[in-house]
Amino acid sequence: MAQNISKLYIDGRWVDSESDVVLDVLNPATEEVIGRVPQATVGEVGRAIDAARRAFDEGPWPTMSPRERAQVMLRMADALDKRRAELVELNIAESGSTRMLAEYLQVGIPLQHFRDMADRILPTFSFERGVLPTIGDGIGQGIVVREPAGVAVLISAYNFPLFLNIMKLAPALAAGCTVVLKPAPTTPLEAFVLGEIADEAGLPAGVLNIVTGDIDAGRELTTNPKVDLVSFTGSDTVGRLVYEQAAPSLKKVVLELGGKSPNIICEDADLVAVTTSVIGNMITHAGQGCALFTRTLVHRSRYDELVAAVSAGLSMVKVGDPAEPDTVMGPLISEAQRSKVEALIATGVEQGAEIAFGGGRPALEKGFFVEPTLFVDVDNSMDIARKEFFGPVGVIIPFDDDDHAVRLANDSEYGLGGSVYASDPVRALAIARRIRTGFVSLNGGGGGVTPHIPFGGYKQSGLGREWGEAGLEEYLQTKAITWSAARG
């Protein structure tokens, strides 16, 4: 399934890159080259920004009615649906997802989100509302208008490429913004499919531009004064750089960064459900998910029982090529990421934690694999309890009572997600209200991943929200327009 892309998508056209640098895209399970893309120059990134600026200032997209934008987006949704099977296969090969994950979360959910934005949110969202009359020197009236923020730069991470691209692109387009999309260099192929979708659906030229690029090209995206908004998903380290680079021109910044999310297990919790949760949050996409609950806090009376159950469950996890139907956990994205995970595992051992399961590499000849690894005898001050692995590694820490659990949960630089398991739902809700995170799941949650709720974090997990109406609002500015209805 080689995907050799020789062109960039700028101003509604596929243009040859002037760069002689080509990025190889590897299948992380086999280490084979599955595609090549050009690495855009700073000049080409600048031309993509210029195209988006013209399309916003002079083009029809920002001034179309919400219903007109929705019609174009629905055509895009139809085109995406027709290519669903192809996108699943590409995602498995490019990001190393298992088939189940690719079909559901990597492809199914973002396609659902894109259609929901066009079909439900756009026709019903309040872009304009009247205000109460002001009575004083005569009578004043007015309206409050929500209008597009302008040129939006979207920078996505490698772990969920289509998911992240669409979760940014859908609200940006719905708001009336024009876009420059920069995918991660390790997973760019699914992004370029969106250019083909835009052509098929008749999206006006310049509304969507897709470029790659190195550090200098990325800096051009975050500093160029023609850009109004930057939405970034990635590590908190790079997120801080994006924030700093956008600051001199006071761009609006949306950051979806890391997490070390707690999973609080009360003494009366259903241990079967809990064990499934703990294992699932360790192995889903080989732990490469910012919202995974990788810091398990369990009541001391259930600690030994849970450690034994999770260790036994991990022994049955098949690690291997995600293209094989019975594979449960696939690879990390790259050798560099595997090295980072292994270095942090070594740090955990050095700091006195014990490996209850895993800790090494599976016996596979190719691929960037790490065994699912469970740490016990962990103190919340250790690096393995505070830093994000972005790999299949979990820690289990005991607590004494609810107050202790909440203190441990909140003792983190991050604040993305959280989870509580307790037989009493009122107790679970009371604990959830005290956790300083952007979302909390009670007893496993319900309904699956939904685009109807806001997604984002507190503290160093980021700024702003994504998904649904909350995501749309990030791409809007608010304007008040007033006039005199009657003079005194």
Short description:
The chain has 488 residues and is α/β, with parallel strands linked by helices.
Distance between the termini: 74 Å
Task: Give the tally of β-strands.
Answer: 24
Question: Structural class of the secondary structure composition?
Answer: alpha/beta
Poorly predicted sequence stretches spanning 5 or more consecutive residues: none
Overview of this protein structure:
By secondary structure, the protein is an alpha/beta fold. The chain has 15 helices and 24 strands. Helix 1 packs parallel to helix 7 (215-223) and helix 2 (66-82) packs antiparallel against helix 4 (99-124). Strand 20 (417-421), helix 14 and strand 21 (439-442) form a beta-alpha-beta unit. Helix content is 39%, strand content 23%. The N and C termini lie far apart (74 Å). A seven-stranded mixed β-sheet has the order 16-17-18-15-14-20-21, sandwiched between helices. A six-stranded mixed β-sheet has the order 11-10-9-12-13-23, sandwiched between helices. The model has no long low-confidence stretch (mean pLDDT 96).
Topology:
Elements: E1 3-4, E2 7-10, E3 13-16, E4 22-26, E5 33-38, H1 42-57, H2 66-82, H3 84-95, H4 99-124, E6 128-130, E7 134-136, E8 138-148, E9 151-155, H5 161-175, E10 178-182, H6 189-201, E11 208-210, H7 215-223, E12 229-233, H8 236-246, E13 252-256, E14 262-265, H9 271-283, E15 295-299, H10 303-314, H11 335-350, E16 354-357, E17 373-376, H12 383-386, E18 393-399, H13 402-410, E19 414-415, E20 417-421, H14 425-434, E21 439-442, E22 458-459, E23 462-463, H15 468-473, E24 476-486
Parallel strand pairs: 1-5, 9-10, 9-12, 10-11, 12-13, 14-15, 14-20, 15-18, 17-18, 20-21
Antiparallel strand pairs: 2-3, 4-5, 6-8, 7-8, 8-24, 13-23, 16-17, 19-22
Helix pairs in contact: 1-7, 2-4, 2-5, 2-6, 3-4, 4-5, 9-10
